[in-house]
Amino acid sequence: MRYADRLIVHLGDDAYEPRTLEAIAEELRIADTETLEHEALDLARDGIVDIDSKGLVQLPSLESLGSEFVGTFKGTTRGFGFVTPEAKTRDGDVFIGPEDTGDALSGDKVRIGFRRDHGRERRQRDGKPSYKGWVLEVIERKRGAFAGEIFKQGTTWLVQPDGKDLTDPIVIRDATSKNVKEGDKVVVEIVEYPQDGALAEGVISKVLGEAGR
Predict the structure, then answer these.
(1) Reported pTM
(2) What's the CA gap between 101 and 92, in Å, rounded?
(3) Which residues are CB-contacts of 142 (< 8 A; sequence separation ≥ 6)?
(4) Residue 149 CA to its chain's centroid (Å)
(5) CA-CA distance, 157 to 169, in Å (whole number)?
(6) 3, 57, 133, 152: which could form a disulfide with 112 (CB 3.0–4.6 Å)?
(7) CA-based angle 46:48:54, to the nearest 5?
(8) What pLDDT score was predicted for residue 165?
(9) 34: three-class secondary structure by DSSP
């Protein structure tokens, strides 16, 4: 399609307000309005854009996806996260509470259930719909190995991962067999992902040496 990508990007702009194809053509400086209209109607039939009875064009709502969708999870250091749907919608990301993230980590592809969050809508008072969701399954992991520094807490060995994808320590069960010492930099393969407040567990796949060297 000649104009489809430009149209979808335009509809996804944060400042965009629903308007007619004629107005959109003028904004995008598209002279061939007939082709734009044909492509927009094709996109509407496929559920990629929404055209209402007044001819106003916008991205579809989250609710048009049903009660579940697939998207990318982004976690925070405070335990909660957000999921961005693969299908572009006008409603943005879905909030996932700390108790509903399952074992998802930032960057993972997940399937979630979701519903309207009327409590947040009342607090926000901006007239926009708000949603909350819960992770049903992790479809694909962004990564399964993490580098970090190993340390000991009591009798337990742990690794503090580098980066922001996983911010809590990883419990290491095979540290003594790898002859590591506190402060060493290691690569850890995850064998149990964090869930229900429990830390992730992993095994050392590579010892990189002393941290900072």
Answers:
(1) 0.76
(2) 18
(3) 105, 106, 107, 108, 109, 165
(4) 27
(5) 10
(6) 133
(7) 95
(8) 85
(9) helix
